[in-house]
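Bumping with the actual sequence this time:
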Amino acid sequence: MKLTHKLLILALCLGSLPVVAEDSRLQAPKDLNGYFPFSPPSSLSDWEERKAWVRRQILVAEGLWPMPTKTPLNAVVHGKIERDGYTIEKVYFESAPGFFVTGNLYRPFNPKGKVPAVMFAHGHWKDARLSLGDPDKVRTEIASGGERFENGGRSIFQSLCVQLARMGCVVWQWDMLSDSDSIQFSDQVVHRFAKQRPEMNSMENWGLYSPVAESHLQSIMGLQTLNAVRGLDFLLTLPEVDPERTAITGASGGGTQTMLLAAIDDRIKLSFPCVMVSTAMQGGCTCENASLLRINTGNIEFAGLFAPKPQGMNTANDWTKELSTKGFPDLQSLYELHGKKDNVFLLRGEHFPHNYNAVTRSAFYTFVNKHFKLGFPEPVIEQDFEPLPREQLTVWNAEHPSPKAADPDFERQLLKWLTDDSNKQLHAAAETTEGIEKVLRPAIETVIGRPYSKAGKVDWELADKQDRGDHLEMTGKLFNRTYNEELNVVWLYPKNWKGRVVIWLGDSGKGAVEHENVKELVAGGTAVLGADLLYQGGEPVKQTRVVENPREFAGYTHGYNHALFAQRVHDILTLVTFLRNTKVGSHPSPDHVALAGWGETGPLVIAARGLAGAAVDRAAADTNGFRFGKILDYRNPGFLPGGAKYLDVPGLITLNGDLPLWLQGEEKESEGPVAEWLLK
């Protein structure tokens, strides 16, 4: 035996680091009530890389990568009401064909030149835009210092819009789905969804929350963010609006919308999310969660994406009460890294309950006044006004009839339009190298949650070695130190090793190396590496874990945790990076690495090879015709949020490009024995 081969065997037998921790993935899954700290970057270059990833993660999670085609808004503005210093109009437009956004437009009376524009996203308040509070409750709030006026205090929504319009701003206040005049989805579907709807769960004609919708990344949160994007489009069509002075604010669920639009849309110049930015609870409603959204990130980092532009926020006696010591100092550090520490502002209000009260609104007016240079004496104090009843603000009437309310057929049609539009864009992208690298690859990296370049640092530990005559059989563990993950592996190492390694994977885990083709490979001088991917090596997984939440919504689990499919792809990337990048003693690196997968492992191999690219010389897989879009249970081990959206398994195949790929289970199958092909 050659000296280098003896050294390799010795290295594999002796080289290792001790195990000190259990695989982090075996812990209980994370949920929205966890702890979500943010670690400021050490440099702006590090932050720019991280920022690009998180921003893309938001867009992908919300079904906005690529952005749905911006069809004509067909905006209708009607019913102008003139008041003291401002006007109010009723507005509806289409964010997608037949999908109506409703709200009120407040404008300063006779504006001179270009004026600032403010988007106001309400949260989970009863009747929201159309609400008028109880006078007795307002008096209680006045007594506590939260409000100033009995009249104006009855509507926090009208109060903010009126004051800003009097200050010379155009204000767009739109309805969250199922609130006020937004009636195409029911409150039950938008905010109170609990049980899967069998009639909305099919491969051909599906509704929201179904596994098929999740595999296409279609969610209420995504629809609401789309409405916000199109609302900004609408605002910027108004001739008096200054595109360099656009702001967004909102509280609670509106704070979530504020944070996310500010994070993804560069047209927003000032942001003020209220009672939402926190290291604690991230947003409890179905409308504030989406699969993939907060995996390895959270609301503090989302707010950080807006740096260094002006951003304010507040605390209250709710989940934000510790923000001043947990989260906000880190945001300050990020802003300081940009040289703009004073551009981020925190209003302390832990003595108030969850709110967007007059004190907080005044802080927002003052913040806008300062950064948009409006010239008012500071602090800007809200003035009283006479609020309008709902019948004067509602959008729909006899001349402008409403669409059908809570229509499941509309829900299906909208999702179909989004699917068709996305498929058209993605098929076009898949036809060019540029499209694959700029659209498809970044999306699939986000869906899987780990690019090959971030596969991690890997170590090896030997457990047992047996001499099998013409080869050594060694069992042990690989440890991904970067992510605290581990794999049980087996090596079949021929004594006449010729510098080639095949990673051979199957549903039985390490047991897959008992295949006849593996014997042929080893006899020919090729080393074979088998592994138990996550939860392999025992009884097959029939259902994956979900968080303890009574609502059957995948986003509560997969918005914070990788799906099993993605985690197993991570394991394969760990195997590849170990072979390509890890030095074990005197172990000479293999000059050829191949990858093969069979059974349910076949699609995993296709995905991993697409991500690893040329790090894998050859790959072979049998997909068995698997498609993510055919899965009708989000607890299915093959379920992957976004798996169907990016052209399903054919999209993963496309990611492999022109690299050598032996394929079975698809329309076009490869010919010839796989072992012989892998040895080429």
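The tokens above came from a reply further down the thread. The CA atoms of residues 158 and 387 lie 7 Å apart.
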